[in-house]
């Protein structure tokens, strides 16, 4: 008997993407609409901002966003794929439309998640401070903003030149990530100590998954299924976005 296989019909995949895009627009409008109202007592409030390259998006990102959303009773979390990340200058990153589509597919079935094209559509390098300022302007002062990052990223961010300005717009939720020690956060001399209380450490279920490892596995022909949502897996298989040069991966199936 044939085993259940991943979706590989290009028409079905195109339909799935179209659905994800229109659902994303509806969710964004709904969540931003809720956020523009004053928060009700005890009700959810605030927006989580999950920045990243998402090359590709995986369960580590989704668990981080979902745990933060639940623990802090947020209205929702926006995933913001970076256009041209300055810290990845000189590295090859996947074309942004692919990264955006994968993020759309990964978040489609969660009514509290949406994806923003903000950094992708902004010319020049993508700076998180511009993103946070943008959401602060859209939402006004009544709703708190939380920048959600893994332990590796928060350590880098705290060393930024404009870190104090960042804290005037948002707090940080620094989630645990295997291999990176949150206890090792060092207080950079430029960080004003009044902002230390605005860094919340959040323990999440440990997932030793990284996009770099996923790309390497694909390049080596090893499986990545169950490290990321099936819809993203199908997209990768079908578009051959990471297929090693010279392979006919999309014809050969999906078991990267
Ligand atoms: P790469 O290996 O290409 O850097 P990545 O897996 O680190 O990819 P990014 O897009 O760089 O993914 O990460 C976006 C954000 O998600 C960062 O704040 C990162 O720390 C966090 N993050 C990524 N993977 C995990 C994970 N497994 N657990 C917790 N946080 C994670
Ligand atoms: Mg990373």
Please, could you describe this protein's structure?
With 256 residues, this protein is α/β, with parallel strands linked by helices. The chain has a single domain (10-32, 44-239), classed as Rossmann fold (3-Layer(aba) Sandwich). It contains ten helices and six strands; from the N terminus they run αβαβαβααβααββααα. A six-stranded parallel β-sheet has the order 3-2-1-4-5-6, sandwiched between helices. Helix 3 links the parallel strand 2 (76-81) and strand 3 (113-115). Helix 1 (10-36) crosses helix 3 and helix 3 (96-107) runs antiparallel to helix 9 (230-239). The longest helix has 27 residues, at 10-36. The model is unreliable at 248-256 (pLDDT under 50). The structure holds adenosine-5'-triphosphate (ATP) and magnesium ion. Adenosine-5'-triphosphate binds at residues 52-55, 60-61, 64, 149-150, 152-153, 175, 177, 207, 209-212.
Give the cofactors and ligands. adenosine-5'-triphosphate, magnesium ion
Structural class: alpha/beta
Low-pLDDT parts are: 248-256
| CATH class category label | Alpha Beta
Number of domains: 1
Radius of gyration: 19 Å
Largest beta sheet, briefly? 6 strands, parallel
CATH fold descriptor: Rossmann fold
CATH architecture: 3-Layer(aba) Sandwich
Mean pLDDT metric: 89
- Estimated helix fraction: 40-55%
């Amino acid at each position: 008997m044939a085993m259940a296989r991943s979706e590989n019909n290009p028409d079905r995949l195109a339909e799935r993407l179209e659905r994800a895009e229109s659902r994303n627009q509806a969710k964004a409008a709904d969540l931003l609409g809720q956020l523009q109202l004053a928060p009700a007592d005890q009700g959810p409030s605030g927006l989580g901002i999950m920045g990243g390259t998402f090359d590709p998006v995986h369960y580590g990102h989704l668990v981080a966003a979902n745990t933060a959303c639940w623990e802090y009773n947020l209205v929702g979390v926006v995933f913001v794929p970076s256009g041209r990340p300055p810290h990845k200058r000189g590295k090859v990153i996947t074309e942004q439309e692919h990264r955006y589509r994968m993020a759309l597919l990964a978040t489609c079935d969660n009514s509290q998640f949406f994806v923003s094209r903000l950094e992708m559509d902004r010319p020049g390098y993508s700076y998180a401070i511009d993103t946070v300022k943008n959401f602060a302007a859209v939402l006004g002062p009544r709703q708190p903003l939380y920048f959600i990052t893994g332990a590796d990223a928060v350590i880098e961010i705290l060393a930024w030149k404009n870190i104090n300005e960042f804290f005037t717009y948002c707090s940080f939720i620094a989630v645990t990530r295997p291999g990176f020690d949150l206890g090792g956060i060092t207080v950079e001399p430029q960080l004003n100590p009044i902002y230390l209380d605005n860094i919340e450490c959040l323990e999440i279920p440990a997932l030793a998954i990284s996009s770099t490892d996923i790309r390497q596995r694909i390049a080596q022909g090893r499986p990545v299924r169950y490290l990321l949502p099936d819809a993203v897996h199908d997209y990768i298989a079908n578009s051959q976005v990471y297929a090693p040069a010279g392979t006919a991966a999309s014809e050969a199936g999906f078991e990267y």
